[in-house]
Amino acid sequence: MPHRRIALPLDVADAREAAVLADLVAAEVGVLKIGLELFVAEGPAILALGARHGRDVFLDLKLHDIPETVERAVASAARHGVRYLTVHAAGGAEMLRRATTRAQLESGGRMTVLAVTVLTSVGADDLHAIGVDRAPRDQVLALAKLAWSAGVRGFVCSPLEVGALRQALGPEATLVVPGVRPAGAAHGDQKRVATPAAAIRDGADLIVVGRPIRDAADPVAAARAIAAEIGETLDTMKAGR
Predict the structure, then answer these.
(1) Which fold has domain 2-239?
(2) What is the pLDDT of residues 167-209, one digit of tens each?
(3) With helix as H, strand as E and coil as C, how does the chain read?
(4) Catalytic residue check, 191
(5) Which one of 62, 145, 191, 238 is the catalytic residue?
(6) Which of 57, 88, 98, 137 lies 20 to 30 Å from 113 when distance is taken between CA atoms?
C-alpha cells in the first residue's frame, strides 16, 4: 500500500502535540518518526505511540559515539520495539558492526539500523568547511560502502543520491530518503530535495515527509495526496513506462 512508504516525523515539542498529530495522520502513513526534540522531552515512553496506532517506529537519534556506547543504546532501542534506528556512518566500521550485530540479536532481525550518510541540510560548501573535499554524492557513496562492509543494510540519503546508492548496493538495501517535498512546497532547511515521485522512482523504499504534511491546512488530505503520487509512480514503474 503506497501510504506505507511514508514516514511522518513527529517534530513537535511534547507528548500532547505528538499525540494530536499522530491521532490525526497516523492512519495515512506507514511509520512514525521520533527525533531528538521529542525523545529528549519525553523519553522512551513516547515510543508507545507506534503500538497505539499500529505503526512502525523510526527512532531518529543519529547515534555517533564509541562502539560500546552505541551498541548499548541500540540494545535499549530494540527492547522498546523500535523498527528503524539511525546511526552516523561516519562513526566508523567497528561502531557500525557492533550496532548491526546487536540489533539483530536483540530484535530477532526485526530492527533495521539505518546509517546516515550526509545530512540533507549539508551541501558541498559545508563538507569543505569540515575538511571533506568530496562532493556530497561521492561522500554519500563512500560512507555507504563503508557501512555496507560493516554489515549495515539500511541507509539514509538525500533524493539526489538515492539512485546512485540503489545502483551501487542493489535490491537488498533499505533506502530511506528525507528531504522529500511535493512540487511547489518550500524547501525549508533542506538543500538536496526532490518530489515523492522522483524519490520513489529513483529507488527509495521509505520517504520522510514532515512539514508539507504537518503544516498543511489539511494534513490528512496532504498525506493522501502524497500517497496517491507514490501509488501512481509505482504503477507506472510496474508497467515499465
Answers:
(1) TIM Barrel (3.20.20)
(2) 999 999 999 999 887 764 444 444 445 889 999 999 999 999 9
(3) CHHHHEEEECCCCCHHHHHHHHHHHHHHCCEEEECHHHHHHHHHHHHHHHHHHCCEEEEEEEECCCHHHHHHHHHHHHHCCCCEEEEEHHHCHHHHHHHHHHHHHHHCCCCEEEEECCCCCCCHHHHHHCCCCCCHHHHHHHHHHHHHHCCCCEEECCHHHHHHHHHHHCCCCEEEECCECCCCCCCCCCCCCECHHHHHHCCCCEEECCHHHHCCCCHHHHHHHHHHHHHHHHHHHHHCC
(4) no
(5) 62
(6) 137
